Amino acid sequence: MTLMSKPMGPIPPGFATIDGELAIAGVRARDWVARAGGAPLFVYDAGLIAQRMASFRAALPGIGLHYAVKANPLAPLLAFMADRVDGFDIASGGELAALQAVGVDGALIGFAGPGKRDADIAAAIAGGVTLHIESPHEADRALEAGARAGIAPRLAIRVNPDFQLAGAGMRMGGGARPFGVDAEAVPALARRLVAAGADWRGFHVYAGSQSLDAAAIVASQVATLELVARLGEAAGVLVPRCNLGGGFGIPYHAGQTSLDLDAVGAGLAQALATRAPILADTRFVVELGRWLVGEAGVYLAPVIERKHSRGETFLVIDGGLHHQLAASGNFGSVIRRNYPLAIATRIAAPADEVAHVVGCLCTPLDRMGDALALPRAEAGDLVALFCAGAYGASASPAAFLGHGPAREILVGAG
Ligand SMILES: *Cc1c(COP(=O)(O)O)cnc(C)c1O
Fold first, then answer.
1. Domain co-membership, 257 together with 349
2. pLDDT on residue 239
3. I need a surface site. Which of 107, 201, 209, 320 has the fewest CB within 10 A?
4. In degrees, to the nearest 5, what angle opens at C-alpha 256 toward C-alphas 169 and 411?
5. In a mutational test of the pocket of ligand 1, which residue from 70, 111, 286 has the highest number of ligand atoms less than 8 Å from its CB?
């Protein structure tokens, strides 16, 4: 009996074929590996990221575009972003240091995160970063740090809303959460921050991640506008800035399609046109991670072994979940489904076999592709795993089993 193949997600647009091989930014995958000094290798195409930004600007004019560093903190990528986005959102002192290392001004940085250390708070205040306060105790610590430094700290409040982004891959708002201050407790806290002399920056509402549903994103933005207007009025404070969150998703799996950005832009524009008077002069920003960089990244890993077991074919790659945990289905997925994958060195060849693509780690968790219809590959061929630009290298357990980290390069930054 032959093994039935299982579907995979769509290969993102923007890649080409040269001489039967996958090309990234106009160069064959194998040549990128040679230039980088070997594989496993993450290649990030800056040209594709720039295209994303241009489509954001066209669809959401006047909305600030922030990059969520958590998605991919590679230094050359941050430097590339620094010239092109309106700000950055970080969630640790390490991310702050990474931005400072490439010369990003603290005034462009917002710092959220449920457990900020005193040292991180002090570094952020000294650097002019806006802290997104997530608890009354954290507010005390920030005000004290500001007083010690002789600086009025830039403070916003991250609100735990009373709604969540419907259908999001990861929910981070609504109900009991470790993130943000419950909406009902926000007005009193906002009044306290302003009275204590903070440089008041407004509100941050993050309702969820990885949504492909424009209507759901708009509904969450509409709810956010209503919520922050209500909170500002209840607190008697202005709202200089409102971070509307993000949640723009990318298609990873079969049956998923790209987010309709124009629909998001149109819905948000309509909501802004009728916003409450208290928000008339508010600056609105959206914070995006994976939507900006996820589809621009490809993880390249050579086939080490082609083997058979009881009638099934396994391609064992030099690579795996220690670099690209999400593709194994072990990063926040309930069920494992195939990411888009190809044999980079035979991308134009017909799929003539069904194979499992597994990593080199000695654990059954390390499966990068399950029962995929692929061209026949041999040891030495390169596997390309797509959608690897976000939550790949930095979100995977690189130390697990001692194979070492992957290489990473940003290409096409010109
Ligand atoms: C993780 C996170 C993001 C980025 O999420 P993406 O799905 O990569 O866009 C943005 N903001 C906050 C607060 C986050 O926690």
1. no
2. 98
3. 107
4. 85
5. 70
